[in-house]
Amino acid sequence: MLDSMLARARFYDITGYWIPGNLAIALAWFYVWAFGYQEQANKIIQYAAERWIVLVVFVCVACGYAIGHMVNAISKLVLEKCILVRQFKKDSDWLQRVKDDQSGRGVEILRRFEKEFHYQPVSSEADSGVIQGWAEQKMPAPSMTTFRYLCFYGINRTLLLLSLASIPPVAYVVYSKICWCCMIMSVIVGILISIIFGYQYLRFVKYYADSLPELLLMMGDTNLVEGRDDNE
Questions:
Q1: How far apart are CA 87 and CA 93, in angstroms?
Q2: Residue 131 is assigned to a structural domain of this protein
Q3: pLDDT single digits (tens) 152-163
Q4: Measured between alpha carbons, how far is 13 from 42 in angstroms, rounded to an integer?
Q5: If DSSP codes are grouped into helix, strand and coil, which group holds residue 133?
């Protein structure tokens, strides 16, 4: 079970932090190149070619991972706290669905959670990580689907932010190198790509919010977990 949890943690680190972080580094370099600092950007590439081993290890692994945390936090702040706050709150309120369950399984699983962690979950957002980890310990196989939804909605959220941030430099380069008509087309394409990421993001948020209460209600089934609690 420990190996499975470590594998999931590595997968989440790669999709949630490492990939977005390295894309953010590439986007930053493109900003430097696009807005009139081609010489400085070329020096970066030249330096990378001369010291590629050290640079790849340090920038792509260490810096990319650290910057990925920043990008993840910024995308969460901008999209979930500002722009899409109402839609996100509506689609992600899995805790209320557990409480509203009429079969009694919701009350049962919250009672078991309070017994084990000594507090009642009060927020879908704040307690989702604890609940997810708890579900992985109790039911590792069924929780895999929920975990995938969590990873996919996280990476689509950061890709949405990065795609929106890439529109200005791409439009500027197209305008300066070709013409304004092509610039308009590049902006439209960038917006369409952002819409795709945004749609995927909201889709996986909904999938995650639907699958997590189902997983918890399965755990709250007395016939399913009563024997496990007796052995713990």
A1: 10
A2: yes
A3: 888 898 999 999
A4: 30
A5: helix
Alpha carbons 47 and 41: distance in angstroms, whole number: 10
User: In this structure, are residues 80 and 93 in contact, taking their beta carbons and an 8 Å threshold?
Assistant: no
Domain extent for 142: 2-224
Dig out the tokens for 183 from the structure. 């610039």
Residue 170 forms part of a structural domain: yes
Query: How far, in Å, CA of 219 to CA of 28, rounded?
Result: 45
Q: Name the region of 76 (left: φ>0; alpha: ψ -120 to 50; beta: rest).
A: alpha
Task: Assess contact for 201 and 160: CB atoms under 8 A.
Answer: yes
The average pLDDT across 42-65 equals 70
Q: What are phi and psi of 223, to 5 degrees?
A: -65, -25
- Mean pLDDT score, 21-48: 76
Contact present, 149 and 7 (Cβ < 8 Å)? no
First and final C-alpha spacing in the chain? 16
Count of domains for the chain:
1
Amino acid at 180: W
- Cα distance between residue 134 and residue 156, in whole Å: 25
Which residues make Cβ contacts (< 8 Å) with residue 13, sequence separation at least 6? 65
Task: Read off the pTM.
Answer: 0.73
> Do 95 and 124 contact (CB within 8 A), yes or no?
yes
Does 230 map to a domain?
no
Q: What is the pLDDT of residues 105-158, one digit of tens each?
A: 777 777 777 777 777 776 656 667 677 777 777 776 777 777 888 888 888 989
The helix/strand/coil state of 181 is helix
Does the residue 65 lie in any domain? yes
Q: Which token pair is 121?
A: 């979950």
